[in-house]
Design brief:
Elements lengths: L6 H61 L7 H19 L9 H20 L3 H10 L4 H24 L1
Length: about 160
């Protein structure tokens, strides 16, 4: 291809440049694909972490409610119970529902807030609190225990479905 006037080296340089351009395009595509796969994997891990965090919160709420199952009608225990319920409600209210990866998790958060709010309402009046405190284990305590157990199962099933 060399004509003696340097045209061959110009043509050769053009070919090298063309091959280099194609290799750059292919490399850019491979890098973009690799980053996309890595981002999707990280996003999936973040979403799974939200499932696990909510399940952990539900277990914490369940344990907190169990601590109070044998509550007597002493004023300090009722005050502690109301404070614990208030903290749990606040913790669940602080969950950003729009970032949850499954509608089942949204249902769970809303259901738990509703049930905890009902319990808080039952214990809002000191006189009524003493009466509810006596019956907590068989009344509201049994209800919230059932709700939390159901919601833990719902989240675990949703997690299992999401993980597939």
């Amino acid at each position: 291809m060399d004509t003696g006037n340097g045209a061959g080296s110009v043509e050769w340089a053009s070919w090298v440049q063309a091959v280099g351009s194609i290799a750059s395009i292919l490399a850019a595509g491979w890098i973009a694909r690799s980053q996309s796969v890595r981002s999707a994997k990280i996003e999936k891990q973040n979403q799974l972490a939200k499932f696990e965090a909510l399940i952990g919160m539900l277990h914490h709420a369940q344990e907190t409610m169990r601590i109070h199952l044998h509550m007597s009608n002493y004023d300090d225990r009722i005050a502690r119970f109301r404070a614990d319920v208030g903290r749990l409600i606040l913790a669940f209210q602080n969950i950003d529902l729009f970032t949850l990866p499954s509608p089942e998790l949204v249902k769970t958060v809303c259901s738990v807030i509703q049930e905890l709010s009902l319990i808080k309402e039952q214990f809002s009046d000191l006189h009524a609190s003493k009466q509810h405190g006596i019956n907590y284990g068989n009344g509201a305590g049994a209800v919230i225990e059932g709700v939390l157990s159901t919601e833990i199962l719902r989240c675990q099933e949703a997690l299992s479905e999401y993980s597939r």
